[in-house]
Amino acid sequence: MDRYHVLECIGEGSFGKVYKGRKKYTGQVVALKFIPKVGRPEKELRNLRREIEIMQHLHHPNIIEMLDSFETPKEVVAVTEYAEGELFQILEDDGNLPEEQVQSIASQLISALYYLHAHRILHRDMKPQNILLGKGGVVKLCDFGFARAMSINTLVLTSIKGTPLYMSPELVEEKPYDHNADLWALGCILYELFVGQPPFYTNSIFQLVSLIIKDPVKWPKNMSPEFKNFLQGLLVKDPKKRLTWPALLHHPFVKEGVVVLDETKKLTAAEMPFTEEPPPEVQAAKAKAVKEQTKKTGQSKILSKAREKRREEKAKPAADKPNGKGEAWNKHQGPEKGAGSTPTKIPRATPANPAVVAKMKGQAQAEDDWETEGKGKPVTPRSDRISHDYAREEDVATQKAAAAAKEKERKAKKSFENVNLESEELDSDDEWQQFIEATEPSNMQLTAPMTLLQDEHFASRISARLQASGQQVLEGMLEGASRLRPVLRVICNLLATKCDNELLYKLCQQMEVPSFTLHLTKQLLEKTNIKKLPWCLQVLGDLVSLLTAYFSSDFNISEIKGTKSFEVFEKSALSFVEVLPLVIKEPTDHDLKLREQGLLCLMFLCDAMDHNQTDIPKRFYSRLVEQNRTVLNSLVTMARIEPGLLRKLEIVLPSPVEASARVEQMFTMTTSVLASMIHIGGKDNGKKMVASYITDQLLSSQNEYILKELMERIIDPNNCVSVIKVLYTTSQVSRKMCRLVTSQEQPMAALLAILEGQVPLEESVLLQGFEMTLQLLSVFLLQLNKVPQVLADAAGLIVDIYVQSQVPSHGAAAALLLSQMSNYGVEIEMQIDEVLMACRHVLSELSEVTVPCPLQHGILDGMLELLLQLVHEGDVSVVRLFIECGVWNLLWHRLVQVLHINSQTEMAVYDVEGEEKILSPRRPPPDWSAMSPSGLMVMMQMSTIVFTKEPHQCVPLLASADSVVVLCLATMLSDFFLAELAQSPGDEDSSPSERVIDLILQVTQLFCFPFAVDTNDTILSETLRCVREVQLVPQLLLVSRRYLKLHLLEMPIGLVSRLILGDSQLIPQFVIMVQNTESTGFLAQLLSPEAPVAVTADVLSVCCHIARNSADHMGFLKTLLMGQKGDYGTLLSLLNHTSPVVQSRACSLMGNLLRHSDDFYKVLKARKQLVERLLTLLKDNDTNVRKCACLAVGNAAHHNGTLYSVLGTAVPQLVSLLNDNLARTRANAAAALGNLSRHSSTLCVPLIKNKAPHRLLEAVLHDNQVTVQESAAMSLRTMCHRRELKEVLVSLKAADKLSSTVQGARTSTVSTPGSRYSVSSGSHRSASAVAQHCLKLQRLLTS
User: Fold this and answer.
1) Least confident interval from 123-132, 821-830, 1083-1092, 1126-1135
2) How far apart are CA 212 and CA 286, in angstroms?
3) 313 confidence band (pLDDT: 50, 70, 90)
4) Which one has a higher pLDDT value, 281 or 1158?
């Protein structure tokens, strides 16, 4: 691996993973195929090495080239050239391709196959998924996992390899085959590229085999004759008659595009027996080999495996089906026309639907586009090409025979199609049997159910029969039972179709279901004499089955508008749990079938509650704990095999074996129901109350034996997952449960046995059981704050799971466990690259989590903890590897998903024209199940470390508003997100409010990095543009005002100041936000003496910049400085502040307020204390204060002489400041003295008295800073306009003295940088400017 950089995962399969990579020092992009050795038999590894060996010798432009291969202790790594696209993906996206493009692909595939076959190599797995696209659309054949290199003497093969849809007839019949099987597959692929589906397609593997062997190909009319002839040659069922080499090379459809390499042309005919016409003796030998190796049995391995799978699926108990439901209640989405299905009779209670007729005509028209027999073009198959639901793929012949016999038997009977619902009495058993069959969900046709539901007479007639027969049942009449049961069956069937929620709910209301059902059930259970009748239990079972169908209906999850469906659901659920104890404890239920149905109904009710997003579940479970504890107590009691139960069942069941199986089945059902009752998903819908109660019951002394038996059942494959669910939930609500489980050797050993693969779980629950075991072990650590020794000893096992697991959620669960083990002192040994590769796998592949994380943790939290430890302890090289391997980027993309950022335009934006709010699409709450609030804080801590150690790779991420980093950071500052974070549950380390504060500061710190490190001007400019686009300044001010106290504001306000000073375009955002959100008071608070000095100084810097930039926001600044009383008390307090920094910036603010106009003069004239304080600051000990005070005084005299009378007292101090140590102060003082004579002669006397002209002339002549010389020269020019002052200058012979200065200035190149608070533009001044001013001054003096 030292020779390659791994970039990103581009594929995954049962073999392992494929990554895009780059060869070091060359830049060559490659594909790296990592195949784990762990768990693979030696034979499979040998085959893998054979594939690599074959590919290493293949060098063809249309075959993926093997560049390198090597092995590590844990993996085999194959390095191939990188192809950018997949033919299968194009087929997925576009449906089919034009013939010209298919022709090009055909020529390239023919070239590749000719090369392979010429070298005696069979591919044996030709399919679109194994065809890649390189640069320029070059086709690349890949995946030689089934390839076979044949010796010269090998004529045929017999082992079955490949994908069923592309298998040749000889393959599916398990006859010997040769290279012609690849050519058949090629024909199938080209047909699919043009048509959009393979030539033989069905959802049934049984039917597929029949189609491939017997059915002709259907040819579309828009296929050219040349192309059709080519495919007809390839798709000949007899391999001996199939178009093959060498004639295939010269077929008109491909001959212009086929390329035969020079090295292939050099091979002799003996060396390439497949691509040359074999001599007669070879043909005879080949025919003999085919005959000898053809299997005598007609049994196909393909069909055998399918039937075996079907039997396994049938053998599973109903509760273990993938959706957790019994077969009778499977959800059907719509009609499915599978092979061998018999048509369902359609009721004709209503006239034919014109829309349906039109649709049928459209289908008939579509069928005319095909040249051969068939029922029209089937839908384009994709990922579900061959169904794996073998339970519904019954033997076609058996089905047809059964259907024919049934039809013959009932041929003379009255057809359901002729039943008139409006006038006929539906009393005959035959008529009701027709209704049952027409509505049977297994028919997979919804026409009959929809017809019945839409018929206005159906509901009333069936309701009448329901009520009448129900009353007869209560009277103990057998006739009533025989009339009631078909009605219940029909209603169950209709509900099971889930075809139309509104119509189904309306039907239930019309028939008073489930209230009638519940009432009748309760009455029957209370009538002892009726319960003794043999048919009563069957009726009760049907009633409970109807309740099950009702509770599993979708209208209990999505409310029907304009109805009270949810209200009825809640009332019915509470009524059912009142009746349930009678159902599961019924004494006459000797075989426990009624108990089983009652428990199943409860399971479906809990499932409906899990999916209902209202407060109904919370109220239901609360009532269950408070008022219906009998149900919960019964479940706890039944979680142990009742003494004597086996003996009772042996009496009523045919054999002891069946009795024992029944006991186990009921125990499994009970644990499943118990788990569904208390297992808490991602959101607590009230089950936590039930879990707490059940936990208390299990931990009580009288139920010790029950808990013990449950723990013993962990290693029982049938009960393992349910028991772990119970322990997982109860451990989260009780530390005592954790201590009890971890203190016993047996349950801990059993849990580790699951992780070691020693418990043979069913495939349908294997992933969930494995993941939940990892999470349960994490719960123990989180609850007990320590690691049990047995788990510490198994650290290596957990590391292997994390590093090697191909299931992303398992890797994430293992990471959480490892992070907790590390926190509690267990030494975890992992290589850095192992940690990063495992993280990359989880981040890139995680799409579904089967088990919610425990105790408010997110699925990614553990991995984030491991990464934080890695970057914290690692040096810069580790952080650089962390970034370059792609984990850093994937983390931010995962955060995008957590925050529900769906597009780049979903930026949180401040509404600058409305009230205080953030304008952004209303997103769902953050996905805390993926990354919890605590995990988010870990992510931010890690980000700060990464930015600190590798700033030059990270800072550019903040320079684009489209980057995922900026999107995430901006979203995390939005009001909506922070409100969600504030409402999230806290933990032991921090409260929600503390998290909000920490997050704001962390985000702020990240945005500070571009201004804290050495960044080039381009990045800095782009960062400021990005800041404008995401409106960071308004966001920071809003969150600072809402969530941060004064002592925490230094960083965010400092960043705001830095941003505005760097980009004047941010000023409008700042001002408008403060004005529209009434945040002026907040800013005034930041200017108060209670605020930190740094915060006050930064706000003043912003205000100075606003004032200096333009006079447009004068009103805003005046409002801010007025204070509550309107007397500019805020400004005065700033001038009187104890901090020189604040005083200097307050003076600077006054100077800039006076810069553009005399609007602020009125304020100073009305409030002389401001001027007096300003003049006092001219004498301050701090140089910056004096400097800024000079600026303010000078600007106060610039526009007019209104304030001359109050400013006159400043003349002596200003003259004195011409000798100040700071050049900028001297320049400001010189400019101020000039302005005091600018508008009138009022101050000429004090200016002359204090020798202002003398000192200014000396400054021009002798100061060593050109900025001071320039300011002094300009002031003297101003004074020359006053006769008194000009006479003084003339008397000083200023014109003569200036001559030498002018000459020296002309030859001088000395320049001094201007001060930050420059009088004019602040740019550098040159000596030539001084010379110009002196020349003009000379002219004024001599004129």
Assistant:
1) 123-132
2) 24
3) low
4) 1158
Domain range 4-81, its CATH number among 3.30.200.20, 2.40.50.140, 3.40.50.300, 3.30.300.20: 3.30.200.20
Residue 1213 clears pLDDT 90, i.e. is over it: yes
DSSP at 230? H
Say if 4-81 and 85-302 have the same CATH topology.
no
Mean pLDDT (the chain) is 82
Give me the count of residues in the chain: 1343
- Looking at the DSSP bridge assignments, the partners of residue 11 are 18
**Residue 9 to residue 1200: CA distance in whole angstroms:** 73
CB 544 within 8 Å of CB 597 = yes
pTM over 0.85: no
Q: Is cis: bond before 246, omega within 30 of 0?
A: yes
Contact partners, residue 785, CB within 8 Å, separation at least 6: 824
Give residues with Cβ within 8 angstroms of 1052, minimum separation 6.
1000, 1001, 1004, 1036, 1039, 1040, 1044
Phi, psi (degrees; rounded to nearest 5) at 290: -65, -45
Name 946's Cβ contacts closer than 8 Å, sequence gap at least 6. 871, 879, 882, 883, 888, 954
Q: Which residues pair with 132 in a beta bridge?
A: 86, 140
Residue 526, CB-side half-sphere exposure with 13 Å CA sphere: 9
Cα distance from N-terminal residue to C-terminal residue, the chain = 88
Q: What is the rounded distance in angstroms from the CA atom of residue 792 to the CA atom of residue 822?
A: 10
Fold of the CATH domain 85-302: Transferase(Phosphotransferase); domain 1 (1.10.510)
Q: Which of 711, 703, 782 is nearest to 741 (CA)?
A: 711
pLDDT digits (tens, 9 = 90+) for 743-788: 999 999 999 999 998 998 888 788 889 999 999 999 999 999 999 9
Tell me the residue type at 689.
M
Per-residue confidence (pLDDT) for residue 323, from 0 to 100: 39
Contact (Cβ atoms closer than 8 angstroms) between residue 720 and residue 711: no
Decide if 6 contacts 21 (C-beta within 8 A).
Answer: yes
- Answer yes or no: is pLDDT of 976 > 50: yes
Rounded to 10°, the helix 887-898/832-845 angle is 30
Alpha-carbon distances of 1149 from 1059, 1107, 1174, rounded to whole Å = 18, 7, 12
> What integer pLDDT is reported at residue 922 of this predicted model?
59
Q: What DSSP designation does 639 have?
A: T
Instruction: Give the DSSP letter string of 406-433.
Output: HHHHTTTSPPGGG--TTTS---SHHHHH
Mean pLDDT throughout 377-384? 38
> Any alpha helices (H) in 24-168, and if so which ranges?
42-56, 87-94, 99-118
- Contact of 408 with 337, CB cutoff 8 Å: no
| Residue 125 appears among annotated catalytic residues | yes
Q: Kindly give the pairing relationship between strand 29-36 and strand 16-23.
A: antiparallel
Hey, is 12 helix, strand or coil? strand
Per-domain residue ranges of the chain: 4-81, 85-302, 316-361+385-403+425-550, 758-836+846-878, 886-1063
Residues 6+ apart with CB under 8 A from 1152: 1104, 1107, 1108, 1195
- CA–CA gap between residue 702 and residue 717 (Å, rounded): 27
Q: How many Cβ atoms are within 10 Å of 352's Cβ, its own excluded? A: 10
CB 196 within 8 A of CB 97: no
Q: Is 33 annotated as a binding residue?
A: yes
* Gyration radius (Cα) of the chain, Å: 43
What letter would DSSP give residue 80?
E
Bridge partners of 31, per DSSP, are 20, 80
* pLDDT above 50 for 152: no
Catalytic residue among 125, 143, 861, 1220: 125
The rounded distance, in Å, linking the Cα atoms of 5 and 1066 is 42
CA distances 1233 to 1044, 1212, 1331, Å, are 46, 10, 20
At 1221, is the secondary structure helix, strand, or coil? Answer: coil
CA 1052 to the chain's CA centroid: 30
